[in-house]
Design goal:
alpha/beta, single chain
């Protein structure tokens, strides 16, 4: 496969994942975000980095956002929402974070490629992405020419950006609010 074919296959994979999103799951995610007092984000590795990007965009919109593990992250409480990204939904830390959130009576949303995974089964709601659940996933619909969890992680970021767009439209947010909230300590 040459470079152009490889890039076309990457775009095709992401297109399949994004067009395959369940509109009901997306709308539920939007509703949970809009109803939350505060929104907490978690994920291991690169999935966690995608959640930091999601947290940043929602912060730009004026939502109170925190990333699990940051020094200034407060305790999660009733009325809050925890959003976790976990491709295989078996990560021990992600499972623990969902347990802590549920014990505090916060809502939980898991973005995953594996709705049968331990973390996913504990969640109040899911956003399922058609992407490899794990290395060597035999499902042809989830195949990726990309290594590791790239398709899942990229799709998680794009799905988050789509949710941001939907929220922006739903609350009729002026883009100037986002510009105003953008970091000036760069």
């Amino acid at each position: 496969m040459d470079g152009k074919e490889y890039r076309q296959q990457m775009i095709k994979e992401l297109s399949i994942t994004l067009t395959g999103l369940d509109d009901g799951q997306v709308e539920q995610a939007v509703d949970h975000i809009l109803q939350a007092k505060r929104i907490f984000f978690a994920g291991a590795g690169r999935a966690g980095l995608m959640m930091k990007g999601f947290a940043m965009r929602l912060m730009h919109m004026g939502f109170l956002c925190h990333v699990a593990g940051d020094a200034t992250t407060p305790s999660i409480q009733r009325g809050d929402l925890l959003i976790v990204a976990s491709g295989k939904a078996e990560t021990v830390t992600s499972s623990y974070f969902v347990d802590v959130a549920k014990e505090a009576r916060a809502r939980t949303l898991v973005i995953t490629a594996n709705p049968q995974g331990t973390v996913a089964r504990k969640a109040d709601s899911l956003l399922v992405l058609t992407a490899p659940k794990f290395r060597g996933d035999p499902d042809p619909d989830r195949f990726s020419v990309q290594p590791m969890g790239n398709r899942f992680e990229q799709s998680a970021l794009l799905a988050a950006d789509y949710i941001v767009k939907l929220i922006k439209e739903k609350i009729k947010l002026d883009i100037q609010v986002m510009y105003k909230n953008h970091s000036t300590l760069e």
